[in-house]
Design brief:
The chain contains eight helices and twelve strands. It is an alpha/beta fold. It is elongated, with a radius of gyration of 19 Å.
Length: about 210
């Protein structure tokens, strides 16, 4: 049996639907429970917060995980990234008020759910500033004055527009990834590759596991 830690919400639903489309039998509505199985009892699923997926995988509670690449980078996940599942594709962006002269300022205050990623972005940009961690409603930062700009995920841009913000700079593409515990990848290689074939319908010899740090 393989245990898969799933990021709750839309990611979990989309991933389970992808499995169903590949012939894996999972009862509809199963994701209402925190843990459940496919009908063959070969796969066990646990639903957790996105930020916790890397922890469940690294501690070997789950052999596999399904989570956004933004979370992996922020948590400095040390394991295997197996597949881009092409779920929830969006961009991590620097955004701020239309009138904000970001490039003219020598010091900026940035609000973000991703402080490590944001600090790295600022360093690589040669920009000095302070990063404030916010866990939700990041767009409010410039509106209420807690920050000059924000770093956040942007899909359609509607939330930015609703708060009179614009994208200043695109930082990186983000999508959902299938990740693995390194030990599990070796000890349960056959089962993991079978699952990967079901997800992407590609030959095993063309699948490469890239270690990330």
């Amino acid at each position: 049996m393989i245990t898969i830690a799933l990021s709750k919400g839309r990611v979990a639903k989309a991933f389970l639907e992808k499995l169903r489309n590949q012939g894996v039998h999972i009862e509809p509505g199963s994701e209402k429970s925190l843990q459940f199985y496919d009908l063959s009892m070969q796969l066990k699923f646990i639903l957790v917060k996105a930020d916790d997926v890397p922890t469940y995988v690294q501690t070997a509670v789950a052999e596999l995980g399904v989570v956004g690449s933004d979370i992996l980078k922020e948590h400095e996940f040390d394991g295997y990234e197996l597949l881009d599942l092409e779920i929830g594709s969006c961009k991590l962006c620097l955004a701020g008020p239309v009138t904000h002269a970001y490039y003219d300022k020598t010091w900026v205050t940035v609000a973000s759910k991703y402080p490590k990623t944001t600090e790295l972005f600022l360093r690589n940009s040669g920009k000095l500033g302070t990063v404030i961690k916010l866990n939700g409603s990041v767009e409010l930062g410039p509106v209420v004055g807690i920050s000059d700009v924000i770093v956040d995920l942007v899909e359609t841009g509607r939330t930015l527009r609703d708060n009179n913000l614009i994208v200043i700079e695109e930082i990186e593409d983000v999508s959902t990834r299938l990740i693995s515990n390194p030990v599990a990848y070796k000890t349960k290689s056959k089962a993991i590759h079978l699952l990967m074939d079901q997800l992407k319908n590609i030959e095993k010899e063309n699948i490469n596991a890239q270690q990330i740090h």
